[in-house]
Amino acid sequence: MSYSNTDGIMIGLEIHVQLNRLKTKMFCGCSTQYHSSPPNTHVCPVCLGLPGALPVINQKAVESAMKVGLALNCEIVEQTQFHRKNYYYPDLPKGYQVSQFDYPIVSNGKVAIEGEDGELVIRIRRAHMEEDPGKLIHMGSIDKSKGTLIDYNRSGMALLEIVTEPDIRSPKEARRFLDKLRNILEYLDVFDSDLEGAMRVDANISLQGGDRTEIKNISSHKGAERALLYEIMRQKNLLRRGEIVTMETRHFDEARGVTTSMRSKEEEHDYRYFPEPDLVPLRVKDRTEKLLQELPELPDAKKERLISQYSISDMHAKALVSNLKIANFYEEVASEVNPKVAATWIADVLKGELNYRDLTIDACKVEDIVQLVTMIMENKITDRSAVEVIRTLLDSGGNCMEIVEKKGLVKVEDNVVEQAVDDVLGENKNAINDYLNGKEQSLNFLVGQVMKKTRGRADPMIVRDIIANRIK
Amino acid sequence: MPEWMSIRDTKHKIDNLSAEEVTSSYLDTIEKSSINAFTNINKKAIEDAKYYDKNQSDLPLAGVPISIKDNISTKGIPTTCSSRMLENYIPPFNAHVIEKLYEAGAIIIGKTNMDEFAMGGSTETCCGGTTFNPWDTSRVPGGSSGGSAAALAAGESPISLGSDTGGSVRSPASYCGVVAMKPTYGTISRYGLISYSNSLEQIGPMATCVEDIAHIMDVIAGYDNRDSTSIKRDINYSDAIINDSEGMKIGVPTELISDGINPKVEKIVWDAIHKMEDLGAIWKEVSLPTTKYALPAYYILAMSDASSNLARFDGTRYGLRVEGNNWHVMASKTRAQGFGDEVKRRILLGTYALSAGYHDKYYVKALKVRTLVKNDFDRAFNDVDVLMGPTMADIAFKVGEKIEDPLSIYMTDINNVPVNLAGVPSMSIPCGFADKMPVGLQIIGNTFDESSILRCAYTFEQNTNHHRKRPDGVN
Amino acid sequence: MITEEDVERISWLARIEIDSSKSKEYAEQLNSILDYFQQLEELDTSDIEPTYHVDDLVNVLRSDDIKPSFTQEEALENCENKKDGYFKVPGIM
Ligand SMILES: [Mg+2]
Ligand SMILES: [Zn+2]
């Protein structure tokens, strides 16, 4: 399968990742667990920008950033110094953001994703550390707002801004890259994607023959795909009409699914970067060895290992490793029952049922799935019943055995099935005749009658075979 | 009648009377004073003093009143930087030095006047009006820690804390005839000091005698993990209070004692150097060739830092707010009305110096000059223990004399700023009088060698009488 | 040379409202100071490294341990314009 990028699409992403698995913020000891707290309760002189307060670098934030760099195959900088990026905005309590400038902590990496036509390597230009601003709540829409409320709980959260080269060629590839990145970050245990504002994306996009635009304010992977689809369409239409695509920043309106121009006076920036005089340089490259040793098994490596260790399919392995918790869950189950059957049930069924309900694997207990797989293996319940057990577990809780018993899902003995077939065949002479006269659906009717008699606990495929054999 | 008291005198008086009486007599003096040295009085000072009367204490500063420059954050006590911008700001936390002072038993008596946001050398650019020099109230007290120096000279507090970005404790000490030290960069935590130019400034002790400087240093200096530029070093400053400078090598920088100096000041400073020679020190002339360029380099860096440091004053979270129809307009109006002319000038110039196209020409160039200045000192200290020269090239100027010409005030810092660029310690002590106004001797030491400075200064002080003279009306 | 237009640009960058009738005066004042700064041009610094920090501290880091934060009251205590625990400001645009 080959992908011909006829429009010459080039997409580069800038992803702000909150290192929200740290206990404290980037430069102060305020707790990062503010997500369900009242506004302005996780603030101190430093992250509130009170006069006289001074920042101190969180060592674990630096090491987390380095780990991400190593996982993205980046080089670690020899020496770096935080800079001040000066601009005025109400969410920025000091009038500058402490960030990295000419020497990002890591640079020159690469990540392979599944592209439109096979493996695609996306180059990582750089990833630098900075602090998150506070959160603004506009009373009304941003342009007509009567007032703005500010919560600085988020202010000073450690961010890693990851910048790719424009190697991405379609919205789908952009989304896959983001999925892969999130996956890696979760494996590194530096990031919890479930928290609000954990990952924010800006996208640069250009088509052959046009200038590049930058789309700001994309808050989800799906949003990135939609914003890019819209922007490609917009640029294509302009170019087709012979108009020009101007270099500009555009705002993604998530609700309407469109990008809009946000040119204004505020946009003319001159950030006046200069070294943050309150912080001294970082020279941490010598910690690389130690961090490499602490690096966990990453998704690609785990996938290969699952395939060879449990002899499961590439497809199942991929589905399992795409979520670390599910992969770990799988391995616990696989240590007690047949790994192949476990993979089928977890990757194909359980994962889908969880997604459908917007649940995580935490909603499920290993022992329940172990019991379930055991019963399937021992032919004690039908596949259909097994699905029902999973649904009930997720919807109403309880445990596997209880549900099977309460709902009477234990598969009936063979002789009971035979008896039911006898009964049904005795009671439905017309249907038998219809079938013998070539009416195929009659067989379905007969199978259905047997299933009814056994209250669904028979295996329909087997019942079908038995009936077909009897009346042949 | 107000009087000059050392820490020792003050403690003695507390023993005889009470901390409450000592504190209230200072408060009384401040109340009656017309020099305008204070911006705010600590309403809890008497209450704090009573505590030490009730609880016997051998803390180093138990019950001793201290005044604090109004750019050092004091929890519950307004901290205004003498700016309209912060007129109503009450910090919810204490600066590191304030914690240390409380731990040592000191009574914060009040906050002292200063040039707005420490940007000035005359204590005239204050929202609450000028501070006057107690030796001659038609003259300025120097600055920017002019309130602290004037308070000491007028007997309104026995000890004080100032801050020194480019001479801001030494200039007023020289003009007001008191003692002040700017320690090595990193010696005293800046946590809670409202930043003007972060890589240049240090909090500095101010007092009426050298020994007190050492005592205050012992209380406030030391490592603080909230200031990333804080140095881990354990020095006992009082140990350096030695009346003996036999064999000490003094360098006299030609550049500090020649161009543009008032001849009377020049003579007094040479007399001081010869006095040190009589006391057993050896001196020689040395050169700090980059001195001329230190001043523009200093101003470029200080203004650049300031333009960023003062960005947080936007009317959003604290301080003055002037309403506008959107946030940016509100911020612009707030800053236009909240800051005085000199502060605005420095912010604008700093913004310009950092802006695209000018960054290398001004900001980076100044940092390179800083390297040269530092090299000058390194070279000089290969040969000598301390450097000596005039703190200020002239005596205190008249109120209003230079205010219309900012450059002329900048020029008065010429002998002081090289020290801040190099990060080395420096002290100003009284060394005589010209036209009845005090003259300060500047003693500069090598990095972390406050001890040599203190030893020289103490020896000079113990063998001269300049520090015993008081302004009229002060005992 | 700072022009009146420069003054307007810088004052916007610095968010300090300046009455346009004052731009000329500001430009003159700032230029006289910049003229003085110009004397640095006399020095050849092409081989000189800039000094950002006078000491050579590196890697000043803190451990990832939680310290107490302000209460909401403390956080907002210096602000008159607040609502439901938030700081309140006019709209952005
Ligand atoms: Mg960023
Ligand atoms: Zn904080």
Structure, explained:
Chain A: Pfam families: GatB_N (PF02934), GatB_Yqey (PF02637). Chain A: One of its GO terms (molecular function) is transferase activity. Chain A: Keywords: ATP-binding, Ligase, Nucleotide-binding, Protein biosynthesis, Transferase. Chain A: This is Aspartyl/glutamyl-tRNA(Asn/Gln) amidotransferase subunit B. The complex is a heterotrimer of chains A (472), B (475) and C (93). Chain A is of the alpha+beta class. Chain A folds into three domains: 5-291, no CATH class; 297-406, no CATH class; 414-471, Orthogonal Bundle (Arc Repressor Mutant, subunit A), CATH 1.10.10. Helix content of chain A is 39%, strand content 19%. In chain A, the strands form three sheets. A nine-stranded mixed sheet of chain A has the order 3-6-7-10-1-11-12-13-14. In chain A, strands 5-4-15 form a three-stranded antiparallel sheet, with no helix packed on it. Chain A has a two-stranded antiparallel ribbon with strand order 8-9. In chain A, a hairpin with a 2-residue loop joins β6 (106-115) and β7. Chain A is elongated. By secondary structure, chain B is of the alpha/beta class. Chain B has a domain at 7-244 and 426-440 and 462-468: Amidase signature (AS) domain (Amidase signature (AS) enzymes, Alpha-Beta Complex), CATH 3.90.1300. Chain B has an eleven-stranded mixed sheet with strand order 1-3-2-4-6-5-10-11-9-7-8, sandwiched between helices. The mean pLDDT of chain B is 97. Chain C has 93 residues and is an alpha+beta fold. Chain C has a domain at 4-41. Chain C has three helices and three strands, in the order ααβαββ. Chain C has a two-stranded antiparallel ribbon. In chain C, α1 (4-13) crosses α2. Chain C is flat. β2 (57-58) of chain A pairs parallel with β1 of chain C. The site of magnesium ion (MG) has 2 residues of chain A, from loops.
Please outline the helices and strands.
The complex is a heterotrimer of chains A (472), B (475) and C (93).
Chain A lengths: L9 E9 L38 E2 H13 L3 E2 L5 E5 L9 E5 L5 E10 L2 E14 L3 E5 L7 E5 L6 E7 L6 H17 L11 E8 L6 E6 L2 H20 L7 E6 L4 E4 L12 E2 L12 H7 L4 H12 L3 H8 L2 H11 L4 H19 L8 H12 L5 H14 L3 H7 L7 H14 L1 H8 L4 H13 L6 H11 L2
Parallel strand pairs in A: 12-13
Antiparallel strand pairs in A: 1-10, 1-11, 3-6, 4-5, 4-15, 6-7, 7-10, 8-9, 11-12, 13-14
Helix pairs in contact in A: 2-3, 5-6, 6-8, 7-8, 7-9, 8-9, 8-10, 9-10, 12-14, 13-14, 14-15
Chain B lengths: L6 H10 L2 H14 L5 E4 L3 H10 L10 E5 L26 H8 L3 E6 L33 H8 L5 E6 L5 H7 L2 E4 L19 E6 L2 H11 L28 E5 L9 H16 L3 E5 L4 H19 L17 H12 L2 H14 L4 H22 L5 E5 L15 H6 L5 H6 L3 E9 L2 E9 L4 H13 L13
Parallel strand pairs in B: 2-3, 2-4, 7-8, 7-9
Antiparallel strand pairs in B: 1-3, 4-6, 5-6, 5-10, 9-11, 10-11
Chain C lengths: L3 H10 L9 H15 L23 E2 L9 H5 L5 E2 L2 E4 L4
Antiparallel strand pairs in C: 2-3
Bound molecules: magnesium ion and zinc ion.
